[in-house]
């Protein structure tokens, strides 16, 4: 592990860090609101009339629920999508915009909620996300999901949570195989979250450097390295670009995809389009597992 105080941007001022990681401010309130409306509208359109099983409690301890979309005959490979929102916003209701595209490609989609910060600690959020993967592996067959073909992805904070399912050490205590996550596609992920200790988000997640390091995928062991596409937008926040560029060589089973003409919020919406670069990449990952 790097020294506790040596992290990406550690020599930047608090104002410079805010510029690097405050993508909502970068977009501005009007554009941000338009993006959030698109997330909801595209998600509602994607699941309208789609076969599935919404509202399943996957974790008895928290009572959190997930939606299963796009099931069909037999068992389908499954894409588990973890929403962003800096661990303190958004929900599964606005995060299923890729479900119809994947259904038409023979792939099911699972979208969980997790308890948001500050109500839940980041350790608890990570536990819930891993419980989602465990639920798919244990109960997927009952809902048309292939437990041997699980691909995990997510955007922003969801990219961080994706990384926390890619690393090792948590699978065995849950009775899962080390390779339960067969492939991964984090978007605009946070892989070394120590910078978060000095930006506005920390008012909700309340991390110190030691806890942030312990929750950073880039700093954790990964004996099994699943195939991955590490995606980030060309016009993303500089902090997110740096995070993906630093994580890529550490995850030597992954490809880096810098998506031109996209920003932090719209890059993941391309998953609704099978002809987009990220749509093709995701379908390729799923079909290879």
UniProtKB/TrEMBL annotation:
Its EC number is 3.5.1.9. Pfam families: Abhydrolase_3 (PF07859). Transmembrane segments: none annotated. The keyword Oxidoreductase does not apply. Keywords: Hydrolase. InterPro entries: AB_hydrolase_3, AB_hydrolase_fold, GDXG_lipolytic_enzyme. Residues 79-167 form the Alpha/beta hydrolase fold-3 domain. GO terms for molecular function: arylformamidase activity. PANTHER family: AB HYDROLASE SUPERFAMILY PROTEIN C4A8.06C, KYNURENINE FORMAMIDASE. This is Arylformamidase. It comes from Actinomadura coerulea.
